[in-house]
Amino acid sequence: MGVLLFNLRVHDLMKRRSDIQYRILKLTKKMNNLTEYSTLVGNDTLSMAELMAMPGAMFGRTMNYMNYAQQYATGYMNHHAQYALQMQAQQNGGQIDPMTQHYVMQQLYNQGREKVVEMETRRLKNEEQRLAAEKEKEETMLKEVEAELQAAKQARDAGIKDMTPNYVGGGR
After folding, report:
1. CA nearest neighbour of 36 among 25, 15, 48, 51
2. pTM greater than the 0.70 cutoff
3. Are 60 and 49 in contact (CB under 8 A)?
4. Are 108 and 84 in contact (CB under 8 A)?
5. How far apart are CA 4 and CA 30, in angstroms?
6. What is the structure's pLDDT at 172?
């Protein structure tokens, strides 16, 4: 009966080990995808080719980021444009040529994009730290399960050894 229980325990531990290894694999994949995405966001250069090469799991997030960055930068530009153009007009005696106006608007738009990059970079850093902590926890659990599995296998083998008949001895 003891051998059966140890066999059951070994089987259960092997399944737990497999489940933990699978979760570690998924976390590693997520971390790799996030690192790739983080690089693209940090550079603020997201071309169509890079977008199409993006892992499927990150495609939706990338599209949301691009949409949010566009909206935020446009809103930032529109919000600050009046004040910036008034300051520019005061410096130029009330006149603003179209090239200067375009330059000011472009600079405001770029500032808005930079703020979005900073926000997303902070978010990504927090998420990467969370994933790293979760992965470390899973790896610790894996070590514990492997140690317990080793002990259970030894106990099972010892039980089997005890059950085997020992035909040692001399004849009559």
Report:
1. 51
2. yes
3. no
4. yes
5. 39
6. 52
